[in-house]
Amino acid sequence: MAAIMADVLQVFLLSPLSTFSVMVWIAALVLHALSPRLEARGAKPRLVARESDFSRFLAASVPAFSHAYAPPPWASHPTVQSVLAATVLRRASDVPFFRTHLQLRDRGLVALDWAGSSPSHPADAPQEQPQIIVLVLPDLGRDCSSVGDTCRAILGRGMRPVVLGQRGHGGVPLTTPRLQSYGDPTDLRQAIRFLRTHYGRCRVCVLGFGSGADLLLAYLGDTGSSSGLLAAVAVSPLYEPEKLLHDSPWPLELLRRRALQRIVEDHSGILARSADVDGALQATSWKELEQKVLWPACGVVTSHQYWERNAPLRDADDMATPLLCISSSDDPVVPTWALPMDVFQSDPQLLLLLTEKGGHCGFIGGFGGTSPTSSCLPRSWADGVALDFISATLDFTNRDRHRRKCATR
């Protein structure tokens, strides 16, 4: 009976445009049509940051820091926001991507999926205005199309989006008998080094969602002042996945677990060298799946050992890159007690924008994506905030550099 139930849930939930997703989408459209009769309720986000010239500049430059975020009435429930974020939000199939593979030191492969045009164009940016490359880190198991609308918004700001496809994810070949651990920034570090080396006149920023946001936090702590990034934005990081992944609410726990199980199934041949593939495919909890697949890759035998190496905030004190985290108080995955307020209150470059509503990776702002073909799809308020933050950080950096030049004359 349990197996039949799992199969039914898989059909309903796991395809991006599955029956369940379409039902939620249609219901949202109907409620959207009725929304003029409903009252949209919102509140001004809370900015958690140490007072500084940087935080004051951002407060004056980023509209979302001083204006209320009011999700449409049909998206006021966090489960609706989170399910749409896991299925249709940010998705676009009409954005062209050009894939290049990057071979890593251990002969593994990651993909760089460039949106809009071939990757040769960033190097042609005018010298007087270096172009910004935004490296996008999708949530677990997602591919470039799952952030297609985000990439289109980035292109609309005159920036170049490129999506990192992790080893074994989203059609990327798995050439090593292991997947990347949850918070291991090794592959990300090599990808960023490649971008900075080959597109030297471009400034690199990173935008991460969910598990991609946690990977970004781990990278920033690991590299400190040598991150090589202009700015970073983390949307709905878990902060403490070691405490939260095992207790995520249904259906989000199922979506995450099945996403990893599909990856294991796709690469069962090579993973069988180091992981218990059969046990992983039969796992009924994230902890069991983690134990069968991810622990062996790290050479650990306990959960404590695994997260001691992979916790995103293990080196939080070393972060030295302008960072905006966007979280919601009603996130069903990340309760407010898990928010590391002390981290944001101690470093002037680290900021938390905490909304009242938004769910997990949702922050829906209504219907109408970034193109006419996505007019019936939900759009994300957080994506615009992220790009405003990146632009404002560039302005602040340029202004600060100009001041230092004037002071030395």
UniProtKB/TrEMBL annotation:
Record SUPFAM superfamilies: alpha/beta-Hydrolases
Membrane-crossing residue ranges in chain numbering: 12-34
Keywords noted in UniProt: Membrane, Transmembrane, Transmembrane helix
Family under the similarity heading: Belongs to the AB hydrolase superfamily. AB hydrolase 4 family.
Protein name stated in the entry: Putative conserved proteinconserved protein
